[in-house]
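so my prof wants the structure for this chain in the tokens format not the other one, which i didnt know existed until like an hour ago. anyway here's the sequence
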Amino acid sequence: MRRFIAVLMAATLSVTTSHVFAQTQEHTPMNDRYTRGLNQLKAIDGRDGEVVVESMRKISPDFARYLIEYPFGDIYARPQLDLKSREIATIAALTAIGNARPQLEVHIAAGLNVGLTREEILEIIMQMSVYAGFPAAINGLNAAQAVFDRHPEPEEP
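here's what i got, hopefully its the right format
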């Protein structure tokens, strides 16, 4: 019983300490992760990303901050993959998930922003039909069409 109480107290202390740290982080001026993440978000998603973050900020300011700090400030900023490669992986993953159409559309637009062609995006989604099935690929192709309709191809010079 004493061991159980000791473990419980240690866990409570750990959670309390984490909560205090999180509160402290929340009220500090923009940290490096946030600044780095915001810069990445703008480079990848442009205005579309800012709209997503603003909509999250209305619901949960903490989650909006996490959305910038972790995926964009920590992961996308890593030098091991370029942004085009990261968007290929993200489009493939979101297509395979099959139930994340709003996020898939944001990342298809991001793929266009970082240099993917429409043909490459379609090929990524078609590749997912092998692993995630035809329904997921069809949903992904429909999402791509919606994005392509909103982002007309640049005119040839």
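also thought this was worth mentioning. Confidence is low (pLDDT under 50) at residues 4-9, 11-25.
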